[in-house]
Write a structure and sequence with these properties.
This protein folds into two domains: 339 residues, Outer membrane efflux proteins (OEP), CATH 1.20.1600; 69 residues, Outer membrane efflux proteins (OEP). Helix content is 62%, strand content 10%. The chain is built from ten helices and four strands; from the N terminus they run αααββαααααββαα. The longest helix has 68 residues.
Length: 489
């Protein structure tokens, strides 16, 4: 005898449904795992850096990085404070930070549930002819109907495979990069202001030397004129002396164009009127000094340079984006629910029968996309390789800048020492030439040539001191600064 199958109890229905859903999810995961392929691996070994700088001073040198700046100069203090308060370049950097911060907030919000609300009034009119010409007796319907509705809608992506979390990490890394880039803008701004002020003070020192040259040349013109009028010297001596005086006047006049260039540059850097800049530059400053170059290690340089920190953050962001692109191989789950009111009479909108709702769980798994996801992964791989090479370039740029700056400081110091010795020797030679001339042991031409050499050596010494101070600003910038904060005037 064939017995009928035993009916399934009603309480087993949800179990069977759950088993079907679980089987469907497992099948989708298996298919997605087959399509996923091997994990993406991009090697990013840390760059090999030397133990010390080749041009750095003896490690026993005790010096402070902050001493490389002209902090004792009132113009630097005041103009730096103005620039940090209102420079357009810093304003642009701050705006980029705000944009990166907003992107980070959006990436973080994408991982949280979303709740929306809507309300609608819908009026419809139906043509009875669409149901045929004749309707059975007793059947009728409204051709015009108005419905009232309001809904709360909720949705959430659980992010089981970390795609959204990876994008949040990428956004956070980009915020770090924007902050480091802003610090780099600040560093460059202070360096340019310091360099411009050193150039301004150097022009003042050169003018002092040139005015001394002019005074000496005018004295020789007067002497040559007196000898010419006395008939004991030819007029040629006076002409030569006047030529030397005119040369000094020409060099003094040329300084005005350099001052205009420096003042204009400071106007751009500080976003202040030219007269304000000139007033600050007119404040007397103490005599500059040449502080020793501080010894540091390349590893310390990498920890302080904003461009290296920004490149490292960009590399971190590209790594997170690569993870997010790879996670697109796996299924995406979505949970959603809706709770609302629906009534065809406004008075019934808040009745029990008007309550409607739904809940759903969605699954989207890539099966056949003809290489779209793999193309996105390839692009993310290329972006990470590019970010890694950019990081390596930033590291070696920092090392190169530091080596160059250390070398420039050493060379400029040697040049300044030689220029100082030259100026001292030339001044002694000029004094001896005048003494010999007054004693009748040499001619006027020897005095003129000795004085011309002495005058030129003084200006060269002033220019050499300016280059030595300038080299220290480059070293300060190359070492990543020291968190300098000028006082607000």
């Amino acid at each position: 005898m064939i017995r009928p199958s035993k009916p399934t109890p009603a309480h087993n229905g949800p179990r069977i449904q759950g088993a079907k859903i679980g089987l469907t999810l497992a099948s989708s995961l298996a298919l997605a795992a087959c399509a996923a392929g091997p994990a993406v691996e991009i090697s990013t070994p840390p760059p090999s850096i030397p133990d010390r700088f080749a041009f750095a001073p003896d490690t026993g040198t005790q010096a402070d990085v902050a001493a490389l700046l002209p902090s004792a100069d009132p113009a630097f203090e005041q103009l730096s404070a103005m620039a940090l308060a209102g420079a357009p370049t810093l304003g642009e950097a701050a705006a980029r930070i705000e944009a990166a911060r907003a992107s980070g907030r959006r990436a973080g919000a994408n991982r949280l549930p979303r709740l929306d609300a809507d309300a609608a009034i819908t009026a419809t009119r139906t043509n009875p002819a669409q149901f045929g010409g004749d309707l059975p007796d007793g059947i009728a319907f409204d051709t015009e109907r108005v419905s009232y509705g309001a809904n709360l809608l909720a949705s959430w992506d659980p992010d089981l495979f970390g795609r959204l979390a990876a994008r949040e990490r990428a956004a956070a890394a980009r915020l770090g990069a924007a902050s480091a880039e802003a610090q780099g803008v600040r560093l460059a701004l202070l360096s340019e202001i310091a360099g411009a002020i050193i150039d301004w003070r150097t022009l003042a020192a050169r003018q002092v030397e040139l005015e001394s040259d002019l005074a000496s040349a005018e004295r020789l013109v007067s002497l040559a004129g007196s000898r010419e009028r006395a008939g004991i010297a030819p007029g040629f001596d006076r002409v030569r002396a006047e030529s030397a005086a005119e040369a000094s006047r020409g060099r003094i006049a040329a300084l005005a164009s350099e001052r205009a260039r420096i003042a204009g540059r400071l106007v751009t850097l500080t976003a202040e009127p030219a007269q304000t800049v000139l007033d600050r530059l007119a404040v007397p400053a103490p005599a500059p000094s040449e502080p020793p170059a501080p010894a540091t290690l390349p590893a310390s340089l990498l920890a302080n340079r904003p461009d290296v920190l920004a490149a490292a953050a960009q590399l971190e962001a590209s790594d997170a984006e690569l993870y997010a692109a790879s996670a697109a191989r796996f299924p995406q789950f979505t949970l959603s629910a809706a709770l609302g009111l629906l009534a065809f009479d406004l008075g019934d909108l808040f009745s029990e029968d008007a309550i409607v709702g739904s809940a759903s769980a969605g699954l989207l798994a890539p099966l056949l996309d003809f290489g779209r996801i793999e193309a996105d992964i390839d692009a993310a791989e290329a972006d990470k390789k590019l970010a890694f090479q950019s990081y390596r370039r930033a590291v070696f740029t920092a090392l190169g800048d530091a080596e160059t700056a250390y070398g420039l400081v050493a060379a400029a110091d040697r040049e300044l020492a030689a220029a100082t010795r030259e100026a001292s020797s030339a001044q002694r030679a000029a004094s001896l030439a005048e003494t010999r001339f007054n004693a009748g042991l040499s001619n006027f031409l020897e005095v003129l040539e000795a004085r011309r050499a002495a005058d030129a050596s003084g200006e060269r010494r002033a220019a050499a001191r300016g280059r030595a101070l300038r080299a220290r600003i480059l070293l300060w910038q190359a070492l990543g600064g020291d968190g300098y904060r000028p006082d607000t005037p």
